[in-house]
Each structure stands twice: as C-alpha cells, then as structure tokens.
Amino acid sequence: MLAILAALSNPHRLRIIAALQTGGRNYVSQLARELNISRPLLHLHLQKLEGAGLVSSQLELSKDGKALNYFEVNSFNFALTPALIAEAVKTLTTNPE
Q1: H helices present in the chain, as ranges
Q2: Which of 4, 14, 17, 26 is geometrically suited to a Cys-Cys bond with 31, CB 3.0 to 4.6 A?
C-alpha cells in the first residue's frame, strides 16, 4: 500500500499513468517527448511506478535493431479505506524508512 501511495504522490507519475492509459503502451523516448521531460527523469519515475506494480515494461527490438523499452499501465483498482489503513498499520515496523 505504501509503495502505491508513494508512487501516486508525484504529479509527473500521475501524468505518466494518464498518458499511458490514454495513448496505450509507449516507449521511453516517445513518452518523454510527449510529456516534455527528460528521458533520465522519466526513467526514474517509471521505475517507481513499476516497483509499485502500476506499470510494466517490455524490451523489444525495432526493425532497425534499436532496443526500445515499452511501458504500459497495469490494470489496478485501489480503494483506500480507514479499515485498510488500520490493517496496514499492523504490518509497520518501528522504523518507517
């Protein structure tokens, strides 16, 4: 739950999910151009989203032999409720980081 909340707490990552949901799967360079952010910054945000299970990637070769890393949104439905938070708190350690 914390990984999902952390991943969704950034406006860039929300825009990435929206772009992938609207436009379908896309490779890093094209997505960076569409969102007007650098590839390294995009890649960092994509790693965070992938770590939370919200997007997935697949490396493919283009016809001219270039490696393209395609990303797509995973299907998810996350309902945050007080009961879910109470259950999650039981699994926290004394050192939150």
Answers
A1: 2-7, 11-23, 28-35, 39-51, 82-89
A2: 26
Confidence (pLDDT) at 95: 66
Q: Does 84 map to a domain?
A: no
Residue 40: pLDDT band with limits 50, 70, 90: very high
> How many CA atoms within 13 Å lie on the side-chain side of 61?
3
60: helix, strand or coil? strand
Residue 49 phi, psi (nearest 5) = -65, -40
- pLDDT surpassing 80 at residue 97: no
pLDDT score for 69: 92
How many domains are contained in the chain? 1
**Do residues 71 and 24 lie in contact, with contact meaning Cβ atoms separated by under 8 Å?**
no
Q: Judge whether 93 lies within some domain.
A: no
Q: Residue 33 is part of which domain span?
A: 2-74
Q: Which amino acid is at 83?
A: A
